[in-house]
Amino acid sequence: MTEIINRQEAVPAALNYARFDQAASSMFPEFSRSRLQAWIKSGALKANGEVLRPRDKVHEGDVLSLSAELQPEGRFEPEPIALDVVYEDEDILVINKPAGLVVHPGAGNPGGTLLNALLNHSPVMDTLPRAGIVHRLDRDTTGLMVVAKTLEAHNDLVMQLQARDVHREYDAVVMGSMTGGGVVDEPMGRHPQQRTKMAVLQG
Q1: What's the per-residue H, E or C state across the chain?
Q2: φ/ψ of residue 130, rounded to 5
Q3: For the chain, N or C: smaller number of CB within 10 Å?
Q4: How far is the C-alpha of 48 from the C-alpha of 7, rounded, in Å?
Q5: In 22-41, which positions are buried (b, 16+ CB within 10 angstroms) versus exposed (e)?
Q6: Euclidean distance between CA atoms 98 and 107, whole angstroms
Q7: Report field, pTM of the whole predicted structure over 0.70
Q8: φ/ψ bin of 17: left (φ > 0), alpha (ψ from -120 to 50), beta (otherwise)
Q9: Rounded to whole angstroms, how far apart are CA atoms 40 and 68?
């Protein structure tokens, strides 16, 4: 689903003599800076009707005009997969992801994923990066996931995660007897060779 965007905003005094891409990022916060830079380079985002470079300066009173199409982000198909929606408003979804559900299509999982289910739940999410998914849970992990429904919410959630303003907690359930004891307190990350596994990573 393609969405047409037509917006005009005047540069405020606080952004006088700012870079074009920086001013645009502040004035159109619902879009990522990389997307805005691409629109500037293609001429979809202009200043006073002129095509400028991202690094060119803009001045107070300049009119930034945006005329662009939000194209679907990927070639993923909606699929009627049931979602356990814990909370929903116009900006976000909170999903209780069950064990066994893969979050995003990939090698060996071209469909049947949470992303496919989200596109079925709300087709307009096909214009969002990864259909609004900003974090993942492994296939066999169950838990709550926050998903953006708008570009502005997506951008805000990504920035919160990058700034570590959002915290995630995990509980591990162990079957059997713990005979070794002790505590694992080491930096964990994706295994450098076996990408489907986790490993202790040293600086």
Answers
A1: CCEEEEEEEECCHHHCCEEHHHHHHHHCCCCCHHHHHHHHHHCCEEECCECCCCCCEECCCCEEEEEEEECCCCCCCCCCCCCCEEEECCCEEEEEECCCCCCCCECCECCCCHHHHHHHHCHHHHHCHHHHECCCCCCCCCEEEEEECCHHHHHHHHHHHHCCCCCCCCCCCCCCCCCCCCCCCCCEEECCCCCCCEEECCC
A2: 50, 35
A3: C
A4: 13
A5: bbbbebbeebbbebbbebbe
A6: 20
A7: no
A8: left
A9: 10
- How far is residue 153's CA from residue 147's CA, in Å, rounded to a whole number? 9
Please state, in angstroms and rounded to a whole number, the distance separating the CA atoms of residues 134 and 150: 12
Residues serving a catalytic function are 138
Query: How far is Cα 116 from Cα 156, in angstroms, rounded to an integer?
Result: 23
Here the tokens at position 139 are 């296939």
Average pLDDT rounded to a whole number, residues 106-112: 79
**Token match 């004891």: residue?**
181
